[in-house]
TrEMBL record:
Residues 26-103 form the Inhibitor I9 domain. It comes from the Eukaryota. The active site is at residues 135, 188, 488. Residues 126-526 form the Peptidase S8/S53 domain. InterPro entries: PA_domain, Peptidase_S8/S53_dom, Peptidase_S8/S53_dom_sf, Peptidase_S8_subtilisin-rel, Peptidases_S8_3, S8pro/Inhibitor_I9, S8pro/Inhibitor_I9_sf, SBT. Residues 1-21 form the signal peptide. This is Putative peptidase S8, subtilisin-related protein. The keyword Amino-acid biosynthesis does not apply. Belongs to the peptidase S8 family. It holds the Pfam family Peptidase_S8. It comes from Helianthus annuus (Common sunflower).
Length: 627
């Protein structure tokens, strides 16, 4: 599941990553076959790593869990740790792996993209394609925007660069927000741009976590940036992008709630872009898991929800009853004392939540203790409250998760409430992914229930990408990165994938690219089991749409649904729009002499309302599958 507890370490943590990468080697650990059926094989293997951690100064890093070829796993560790592992009960052998390869920062690899093969090779890594990103600032000069290996822009490019810092990668920067500089103040915009088309950058990491080679989905594509904000008029930057000659647009913004298409500026601009052959990827919104909570519902855009990838920045809460609860933290300091400490939940009333806001801990003794807080919109502010009150660390429990409930049950069960935190570093290769991100907005579509939305899901959790500043106050490098989550992160993943497909298939129209992405999507995780939601139940179509993006399969779809721009007219008439309202969208006179129901639009998915008796209405969804 999506991580259900967050751990914020306010002082310092066990030295799990205190060595040079060159000192670590990958070892293959063969284990005795367990007796009986093991419910969670990954948790069993993690226990071996924890045992080594408790007997040494650092915790090995899980590299891979085997399920067929051997009973065991691969882990990165020191030679001394390998000797400790070899002496553990149940371990048959510990042998160094023959070749060690640096992992990427994960989501390209997780999506099946490999250097010098497959879609990356056949698309030339997106060469010649221009991705336009509309957001609120960017960081020219960041290594992710270097132009090594990137050719000059195609002759179709008509745009311009309004500030210094453009090159063959970042070919255009334009500001459409008067009175505000282009500087990226919160990092969101640099992050999304590099996710779509950032170039290769070695040794990308956040405080040593997630170390690898960072890149966007289309690393050799061109980028054009258009500054806009959710509060600004977005037609001018959209208009400029169309005029400039972009091929793909990535919009990690949208209305707070669904609007009729003739009132939706994104929908209107995207329809014109589609008419001009431009593919538009839009964020679905972060209002999940509430139903009917989508932004950007128009069928002329790809509406992208968020899922996990197979990386976690693992921390483990160990309760006094020896129960282990996994969470995540980007801050895993080197000398946090792992001794058991008192654990405080600073509310007595079961109906209230511990929001740990300003003043809430003034009369509670939390000095040197762990503090359990309930999730809020600003965990950083909560962490500062706990730190200023003298707390050693903060555990943040999501309100939809069982782990938080487990901790609260334990607190009620004893008068001596203690716990500790183990820092697990970067864990990769989890087979239970992808999973739905709990925050990802859900369908059905409010504006057009007969069109299944969202269209697709892609990585939007624990995404490591470019950041304008160092969160460690590191001044010796410009290669600054950070981890973020949201459908704003999944949207540029799909924009980059669309750029690869356009490069490999220049004759494909936006609707052909969308169809290829949707009809080849996967509904199962890497175990081959159904993708699950935040409740650990199979995710429904209103969460994940057609499923999880699968770029290698989208490169060779078995079925393509084509929609001509004029095909939308009878569909819009069927929604009850007047010819004048339709003209606002399609920018020409329209007649409603012909109408069609939503399900007859030649869209890659559809939803049909079925009635059972007179009481309830059910939705049956039909999704084309890859042959």
């Amino acid at each position: 599941m999506w991580p259900t507890i967050g751990v914020v370490l306010l002082l310092t943590c066990t030295t799990f990553f205190n060595t040079k990468a060159s000192d670590l080697k990958t070892y293959i650990i063969h284990l005795s076959s367990p007796e009986g059926q093991v419910r969670d094989i990954e948790e069993l293997y993690t226990l071996f790593l924890l045992k080594v951690a408790l007997r040494s100064n650092e915790k090995p890093m899980m590299a891979y869990t085997y399920r067929h070829v051997i009973t065991g796993f691969a882990a990165k560790m020191l030679a001394d740790q390998a000797k400790v592992m070899e002496n553990l009960s149940g371990v048959l052998s510990v042998k160094p792996e023959g070749v060690y390869q640096l992992q990427t920062t994960r989501s390209p690899y997780f999506l099946g993209l490999r250097q010098n093969s497959g879609l990356w090779k056949e698309s030339n890594y997106g060469k010649g394609i221009i991705i336009g990103v509309m957001d609120n600032g960017i960081t020219p000069g960041h290594p992710s925007f270097n132009d090594d290996g990137v050719p000059t822009p195609p002759s179709t490019w008509k745009g311009k660069c309004e500030v210094a810092g453009c090159n063959n990668k970042l070919i255009g920067i334009r500001n459409f927000v008067k009175g505000f500089p282009l500087k990226d103040y919160d990092g969101h915009r640099t992050h999304t741009s590099s996710t779509a088309a950032g170039n290769f950058v070695d040794n990308a990491n956040v405080s040593g976590l997630g170390n690898g080679t960072a890149s966007g989905m289309a690393p050799l594509a061109h980028l054009a940036f258009y500054k806009a904000t959710p509060c600004s008029i977005i037609h001018p930057p959209l208009d400029a992008a169309i005029e400039d000659g972009v091929n793909v647009m990535s919009l990690s913004l949208g209305p707070a709630h669904a609007l009729p298409y003739y009132k939706d500026n994104v929908a209107i601009g995207a329809f014109t872009a589609m008419q001009k052959g431009i593919f538009v990827s839009c964020a679905a919104g972060n209002y999940g898991p509430n139903s009917t909570s989508l932004s950007n519902e128009a069928p002329c855009v790809l509406t992208v929800g968020a899922s996990t990838n197979d990386v976690r920045f693992r921390t483990t809460v160990v309760l006094g009853n020896k129960k282990l609860l996994h969470g995540e933290s980007l801050y895993q300091p080197k000398d946090f004392d792992r001794k058991l400490r008192p654990l405080v939940y600073p509310v007595k009333d079961e109906e209230r939540l511990a929001q740990c806001n300003e003043g809430s801990l003034d009369h509670i003794d939390v000095k040197g203790k762990l503090v359990l807080c309930d999730v809020s919109d600003d965990p950083i502010a909560m962490g500062m409250v706990v730190k200023n009150a003298g707390g050693a660390a903060m555990i943040v429990a999501n309100d939809i998760a069982s782990e938080g409930i487990e901790i609260k049950k334990y607190i009620k069960s004893t008068s001596s409430v203690v716990a500790t935190i183990l820092c697990g570093g970067t864990v990769i290769g989890l087979k239970s992914d992808p999973q739905m991100a709990f925050f990802s907005s859900r369908g059905p579509s409010f504006t057009s229930p007969g069109i299944l939305k969202p269209d697709i899901i892609g990585p939007g959790v624990d995404i490591l990408a470019a950041w304008p500043v160092s969160i460690d106050n590191e001044t010796r490098t410009k290669a600054t990165f950070f981890v973020s989550h949201g459908t704003s992160m999944s949207c540029p993943h799909l924009a980059g994938i669309a750029a690869l497909l356009k490069s490999a298939h220049p004759e494909w129209s936006p609707d052909a690219i969308k169809s290829a992405i949707m009809t080849t999507a996967s509904q199962v995780n890497r175990h081959g089991e159904p993708i699950v939601d935040e409740r650990a139940l199979p995710a429904d179509v209103f969460a994940m749409g057609s499923g999880h993006a699968n770029p290698p399969k989208a490169h060779e779809p078995g079925l393509v649904f084509y929609i001509q721009p004029d095909d939308y007219i009878p569909y819009l008439c069927g929604l009850g729009y007047t010819p004048k309202q339709i003209e606002m969208i399609i920018r020409k006179k329209a007649s409603c002499s012909k109408t069609i129901p939503e399900a007859q639009l030649n869209y890659p998915s559809l939803a049909v309302s079925l009635k059972r008796g007179d009481r309830k209405s059910y939705l049956k969804v039909i999704i084309p599958t890859h042959p």
